[in-house]
Write a structure and sequence with these properties.
14 helices; three-stranded antiparallel β-sheet
Length: 314
C-alpha cells in the first residue's frame, strides 16, 4: 500500500487492532461475529477517510448520520444498516474507554425504522381526490372551509396533527407563505406553505373562522387557527376524525392514519428528488436517520421534479 494511503489510515490502525482484540479476547465473541465487526468498522473507516476525516477525534454526529444515510442509499436493508450501526456504536464506546476520543458522537444516532412500520402513503392522484372531495365543490360552509383548509395545510407542510391544531394565527404569514410550527420539545421551525394551502386558509379565515369563533360565548382560543363548532381550539381527536371522514368521502381504499398526509408529504418530496436532510428539517426530525425511512417507501428512480411530485406546493 502506498505510504500516502497508509498515512491516511494510521490514526485508526492501532485503535482498530485494540478493538478487535477486545471483542475477540476480552468479550469472547465468536469468530464470525468478530469478522463481522471488523468488516463493518473497516468499511466505516474507509468512508471516513474518503471524506477527509483522518483522525477519530474529527468525527462528528453529522458524519455518523451521513454514513448511515449513505448505507441506505447503497441499497442496504434496514436490518443490515442496524447491524452495521451497532458495530459503530460499540467501536465509538471503546474509543472513549481508550481515551482515543473525548465523547461518543454515535450515541444519539439511531438506525432507520423498517418501512413496513409506516402507514399507507397516498399516491398523488389519491391526495388530489381527497382534497377535491373535501372542498365540496367550493362550499362556503364554515366547517367545510375549515376541514378543507386543515387537509391542505397538513399535506402542504407535513405538520404533525398536534402541530396543526396547536398553530395560532400569528404563526402563519399568508403573504410570505410560511408558518412557524412548534414540534416535540417545544422546538420551533419555519416551513413554507404552498399556494393551494394558502388559498384554502385565506378563504377559511375570511369566510369561515369568524363564524366558528362567534359560537364561543367566552371567546375561547381566539388565537387558534383551527376552531371547532363551539369556537374552541380544534382537538387532535377531532382532527383525526376529520381526516378519516374525508378519506371515506373520497372512497379511498387505504385507511387514513392521523399522519398519513405527513408521510405522503415526505414521500412525495423524496420521490421528486428533494434532499433527505432538507426533508428532515421540514418534518422537524431530530436525526436524519429517522427521515431515511421514506427512502424505503420510495424505491422508484428519483427522476421527477419537485413540482411534478408535489404539485400543490407550487
Amino acid at each position: 500500500m502506498p505510504s500516502s494511503v497508509s498515512d491516511d489510515y494510521s490514526a485508526y490502525a492501532r485503535l482498530n487492532e485494540q478493538f478487535i482484540a477486545y471483542i475477540g479476547v476480552e468479550r469472547g465473541l465468536a469468530q464470525a461475529t468478530v469478522r463481522a465487526y471488523e468488516s463493518d468498522i473497516k468499511r466505516y473507516v474507509q468512508w471516513l477517510v474518503a471524506h477527509g476525516i483522518h483522525d477519530p477525534r474529527q468525527i462528528t454526529v453529522r458524519n455518523v448520520e451521513e454514513y448511515v444515510a449513505w448505507l441506505v442509499e447503497q441499497g442496504e436493508s434496514t436490518r443490515s444498516v442496524a447491524r452495521r450501526l451497532a458495530s459503530i456504536h460499540e467501536w465509538h464506546r471503546f474509543a472513549v474507554a481508550q481515551h482515543a476520543v473525548s465523547q461518543d458522537v454515535s450515541s444519539t444516532v439511531k438506525a432507520p425504522k423498517a418501512a413496513q412500520e409506516l402507514p399507507d402513503v397516498l399516491e398523488i392522484d389519491e391526495v388530489n381526490r381527497l382534497l377535491d372531495t373535501a372542498a365540496m365543490h367550493g362550499s362556503e360552509d364554515p366547517v367545510v372551509l375549515r376541514d378543507y383548509a386543515l387537509l391542505e395545510f397538513l399535506y402542504a407542510t407535513g405538520a404533525r396533527i398536534s402541530e396543526a391544531v396547536g398553530a395560532n394565527l400569528e404563526d402563519i404569514d399568508l403573504q410570505e407563505r410560511v408558518v412557524r410550527l412548534t414540534g416535540k420539545g417545544s422546538k420551533q421551525r419555519l416551513v413554507p406553505v404552498g399556494r393551494y394551502a394558502c388559498d384554502a386558509l385565506e378563504r377559511y379565515v375570511h369566510l369561515g373562522r369568524s363564524v366558528l369563533e362567534s359560537k364561543s360565548k367566552r371567546g375561547f382560543e381566539r388565537r387558534a387557527i383551527f376552531l371547532n363548532k363551539r369556537g374552541r381550539r380544534l382537538s387532535r381527536q377531532s382532527a383525526w376524525e376529520i381526516i378519516a371522514l374525508a378519506g371515506e368521502r373520497a372512497h379511498l381504499s387505504k385507511h387514513l392514519h392521523p399522519h398519513t398526509l405527513r408521510h405522503s408529504f415526505a414521500t412525495h418530496l423524496i420521490q421528486g428528488g428533494a434532499d433527505v436532510r432538507t426533508v428532515q428539517e421540514l418534518l422537524g426530525h431530530a436525526s436524519v436517520t429517522t427521515t431515511q425511512i421514506y427512502t424505503h417507501v420510495s424505491p422508484q428512480a428519483l427522476m421527477e421534479t419537485y413540482a411534478t411530485a408535489h404539485p400543490r406546493a407550487r
